[in-house]
């Protein structure tokens, strides 16, 4: 089950039900069943604190994904924190709508839980390709 929460921001995800169906279908297409997945929308400052406390990183980011599964083949379980400030800023810089950029970030976090990385150049290229593929499949 996918749930959406707000931490320190007042954010309403457009087309929430469609997004849940889309994300569940995309995970299924990748061969994964959906367990409990929580998306937490928050501010830059909130996510910076999460980044500092849990990852020892001292910089802003748009997303942090925590995999809560015991085993990799368990149904997807995780917490994905998204800075709505960063998403809005990235959308403006990239010249895309905030809704499209939010979909990219929603997909990005779930792709990590499906086993995709983005640290190596080839992995990042594949991640971007998968994000584009998923965005094109939005219901």
UniProtKB/TrEMBL annotation:
Which keywords has UniProt assigned to this entry?
Answer: Cytoplasm, Endonuclease, Hydrolase, Metal-binding, Nuclease, Ribosome biogenesis, rRNA processing, Zinc
Ion transport among keywords: no
Q: What class of enzyme is it?
A: hydrolase
The record's annotation in InterPro entries points to:
MetalPrtase_cat_dom_sf_prd, YbeY
Question: What's the record's note on cofactor binding?
Answer: Binds 1 zinc ion.
Q: Where does Zn(2+) bind?
A: 108, 112, 118
Cofactor(s) listed: Zn(2+)
User: Which Enzyme Commission number(s) are listed?
Assistant: 3.1.-.-
Where is it localised? Cytoplasm
Q: What Pfam families is this protein classified in? A: YbeY (PF02130)
Family that this chain belongs to: Belongs to the endoribonuclease YbeY family.
Q: What does this protein do?
A: Single strand-specific metallo-endoribonuclease involved in late-stage 70S ribosome quality control and in maturation of the 3' terminus of the 16S rRNA.
**What's the name of the protein?**
Endoribonuclease YbeY
Q: What organism is this sequence from?
A: Fibrella forsythiae
């Amino acid at each position: 089950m996918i749930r959406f929460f707000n931490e320190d921001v007042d954010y309403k995800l457009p087309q929430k039900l469609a997004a849940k169906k889309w994300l569940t279908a995309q995970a299924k297409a990748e061969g994964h069943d959906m367990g409990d997945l929580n998306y937490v929308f928050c501010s830059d400052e909130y996510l910076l604190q999460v980044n500092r406390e849990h990852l020892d990183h001292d910089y802003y980011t748009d997303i942090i994904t925590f995999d809560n599964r015991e085993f990799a083949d368990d149904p997807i379980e995780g917490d994905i924190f998204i800075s709505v400030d960063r998403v809005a800023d990235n959308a403006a810089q990239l010249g895309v709508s905030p809704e499209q950029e939010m979909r990219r970030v929603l997909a990005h976090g779930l792709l990590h839980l499906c086993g995709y990385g983005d640290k190596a150049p080839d992995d990042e290229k594949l991640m971007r390709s998968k994000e584009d593929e998923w965005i094109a499949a939005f219901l």
